[in-house]
Fold this protein.
Amino acid sequence: MPTSIARPSRERADRAPSLAKLLAVAASSLLPLPGAAAIEVGGYAALEGRVFAEDPSFAGQSDDAVVSLVIEPELYRESDDGDSSFLFKPFARIDSVDSDRTHFDVRELYWRRSAPAWELLIGVSKVFWGVTESQHLVDIVNQTDLIENPDGEDKLGQPMVKLSLIRDWGIVDVFALPGFRERTFPGVEGRLRAPLPVADDPIYESSAEDTHLDWAVRWSHVLGPLDIGISHFSGTSREPRLILDPTFAPSKAAPAEPNGGVARGGLSPGSALLPLYEQIDQTGLDLQGTFGSWLLKLEAISRSGQLDRFAATTAGFEYTFWGVFDSNIDLGAVVEHLWDERGERGPSPFQDDLFVGSRLAFNDTQDTQILAGAILDRESDANLFLIEASRRLGSSWVIEAELRGFSGLPPTDPLAALRTDDYFQVSIQRHF
Amino acid sequence: MIHHPILRTFAVTALAVALLAPAPSAAITPEERGLEIARERDRRDLGFSDFTAELVMTLRNSHGEQSVRSLSSSTLEQETDGDKSLVVFDSPKDIDGTALLTFSHKTGDDDQWLYLPALKRVKRISSSNKSGPFVGSEFAYEDISSQEVEEYTYKYLRDDQLDGRDVFVIEQYPTDPKSGYTRQIVWLDQDEYRVWKVDFHDRKDAPLKTLTYSGYQQYLDKHWRPDRMEMVNHQTGKSTVLDWTAYTFRTGLQDADFNRATLARAR
């Protein structure tokens, strides 16, 4: 348990301008690119609709279909020699139902200088670590923009200074991470949330709260068929434990459940969950072996700082059948086992689960792809399933459809609150 | 694998150059003569060291509908192994910034990494899909990858004329069982060993595709590259045209320009 839990200060608004400040600083960094070429403009805008199969479970949730507008433009500029570059990629969503899902983020805003043996990046950026498909245990630098999609693949921009050393013996990335980003959660009107909304009022273990300076380092290398990465992170956990708001339920000031799982049932109206961000240390390993049509994958972490130290792994393979049915279609089969040492009493819904998925790549001019998968709980009837399909229309439009479902969730499952939140989503994107 | 095509054919090999003499002795078998020609063709492009180029791919289906991809490529010659290459897509816009890094090998599968800019993810991918289409085009991966002399066995067929040029016609047989072809018939001119035409036969030995080259230009007084390559699929009626521009040789690229870090920042 954290020994001192700093109450969230309510001056979050005072800290908000730091983003504006950052923007201004980065905008001025457009200048120090001697002989810079013209600014390249790119990005996309999308219109998205989401309908749910069933009525909502919890008070306050809207029963309406969701319509969303998304825009993510991108401005890029590099010096004539290509050694310095600047990128600005803001993101905004306007959502018809959930006012919390209407949000803005700076996905990237950085200046980067690169040389053959090193690279320095200063600003807001995103990094990805890992090799598996069903979950990303090792990937810890960026906060999850969970309100975007329950799969957690969307990330918030992270302020960082990143120095990379590129050597014969591998690539070392060292990160200083000033400024913590809170995870986004659906609001009161939103679906895909816990019985109680998550209050916009986090608790930090560190008295530095969201200004704690976090550190991370990763070494990665290629050894023949093996791609290996070893990483360590020290700082504020990106994954909060959710506790009952003591303001509303003073008798339950302790975490709602000793394991930090999402609180459920028996709560007084008007109460809320508070995210508790503790200080953690996490060591990660990601490993992929590429042997012909086989990809063998392993991700493993060991984390301390949230109750007892624990380990978790994702391990599996991907095998591709090329040109099936005497066509150009490639069929990839993915099987991964998800394990978490904390077991059923832990907050992870994937304590002993099997992911089975398949990926169809049509290899046509429109890049048609279909991904279907299910995560099966080996200790209960809980299943999550997903179908995603995408196809290019013409030269600059893309249509995507997504079907996500939850079935057989026992009341004790951390995802039990989502049992009526099966949904179908279609989005049409215009890229420019 | 994408890198330079068939152009950059038949990479480094033993410098069996002594055999270069144009007059085959009577004792030589058609297989030996075919290999000799392939080696000479490879030898004549040795020493380019590196080059960059821009490529526009125009894909047409049998109804005449077309779609276009544009990309840029960098290739670094390796003395003792297959070339290294980096390809970055510019369009369609939804794959803008997607990049592919390939370390090709004389024997065995190539090493390949794909960069997905939306996820900022570098992914090691399987390269054993030799016969699959490259980005939906009529070019298979094996058509556009760095080609090594060792990847085929050969047979000299005849001397002939093609569009007024004296050519050799040879057959080459892929040694990789994963190839989509039983054989390829290659027309190359006797003066400069430039390939002008290739007929591809599928696994059932039925005629599948024809590739024609045009607009050859010479760089550094040595290396010939075509401005255009057109692949026609006889079985589907589809075709793909590759238009090459901005060839630049000896740009100073080094091994340090081809790794996972440069892949992730390529644009």
